[in-house]
Write a structure and sequence with these properties.
By secondary structure, the protein is an alpha+beta fold. The chain has a domain of about 220 residues: Jelly Rolls (Sandwich). The strands form three sheets. Strands 3, 4, 5, 6, 8, 11 and 13 form a seven-stranded antiparallel beta sheet that branches. It is globular and about 70 Å long.
Length: about 325
């Protein structure tokens, strides 16, 4: 069954052009899908049931699983190298590429592929769709120039559900591991606020067998990072985002952080579409379920909740001065 929340735009934003020298994405040639052997739940990280019931999925992370064939991994590495010239930096990440799906049709078609989406539905045990906002499709992280710097500092994501894929061969690297913390965001906040480092015995570094392997992640609930490299090397990873088709829970996005990194030409329209999609689903649910009642306060509250994403978006778009990107390493 096809799951599409907001269709990918038919036109690219101003300032973007399609690559003309890449192969067409072919799932039969470029994919080699396998299920992960294990998953870990939000409850196992220490989140309580009241928190978990408002989230997109009960799953926190999976073990590594294969997405790309050898040929698919080879093509994606070529695409990533071409995109490297469009890298930008921020306080958290020195080298990253956003909006790559507006430049590479191969990357776009990979990121919205429905056979991968079916696998992600199975892993998360909920119906998901490729992310409503293309800035969250095919995000690329590249090696920093300074070996003392993490590829990506300890953080939780600005979106709820994604997978993290190794694009370059992790076996060729010294350091640069993808790591996540076995605990809650509140625990990390308390540990780092006191000036301490996260305890090594609660840090997991999944073993990726090679390029084209990924782990599923509940990105805004699991604190994670790309560790520093111990020696120079080509370290490239990709993050691809998803949304749950059930919009009754929390939005779980921190859209305001995106104003510090993303191209405003695309960001605000994408953000508006995302919020409108969620509100549309919630309003339709209200149309179909609201009961006759003289309790106008209750009805007003239900209507207010249905459009909350839109009103929050309007407020944030109009007032995002002096905002700082959230992460857990302040040096």
């Amino acid at each position: 069954m096809s799951h599409i929340a907001v269709p990918f735009p038919s036109e690219v934003p101003g300032g973007y052009e399609w690559f003309t020298d890449e192969p067409k994405f072919d799932p039969k040639l470029h994919l080699a899908l396998e299920k992960p052997q294990t998953t870990i739940s939000l409850a196992e990280l220490g989140y309580d049931s009241d928190v978990i019931k408002t989230k997109a999925s009960t799953v926190a992370a999976s073990s590594p699983f294969r997405i790309l064939s050898d040929e698919g991994a080879k093509v994606l590495l070529d695409v990533a190298r071409k995109l490297r010239s469009h890298a930008i930096s921020c306080e958290r990440i020195e080298n990253m590429v956003r909006g790559g799906c507006y430049r590479s049709r191969f990357l776009r078609d990979l990121c919205v592929d429905q056979s991968i989406n079916e696998l992600m539905c199975d892993i998360y045990d909920v119906d998901v769709a490729p992310h409503t906002m293309p800035v969250h499709l095919g995000h690329m992280n590249f090696s920093p120039s300074d070996l003392n710097k993490a590829v990506d500092k300890w953080h939780h994501d600005t979106l709820p559900l994604d997978y993290v894929m190794m694009v370059s061969d992790p076996k060729s690297l010294s350091g640069g591991e993808f790591e996540y913390f076995l605990g809650t965001k509140d625990e990390v906040e308390q540990i780092t606020a006191s000036g301490n480092s996260l305890p090594n015995d609660r840090i997991v570094a999944p073993n990726f067998p090679g390029p084209g392997y990924a782990i599923a992640l509940h990105g805004d609930m699991v604190v994670h990072r790309g560790a520093p490299l111990k020696a120079p090397g080509e370290r490239i990873s990709m993050v691809n985002g998803y949304v749950t088709m059930d919009t009754s829970g929390d939005d779980q996005h921190r859209h305001i952080d995106l104003t510090l990194v993303d191209d405003p030409e695309s960001l605000y329209a994408e953000w508006a579409k995302h919020s409108a999609w969620r509100a549309s689903n919630r309003l339709n649910h209200l149309i179909n379920t609201i009961d006759f009642s003289s309790d106008y306060k209750s009805i007003a509250s239900q209507l207010e909740a249905a459009v909350k994403d839109v009103t929050d978006t309007v407020d944030e778009m109009r007032d995002h001065d002096n905002h700082e990107m959230h992460h857990y390493e302040k040096t």
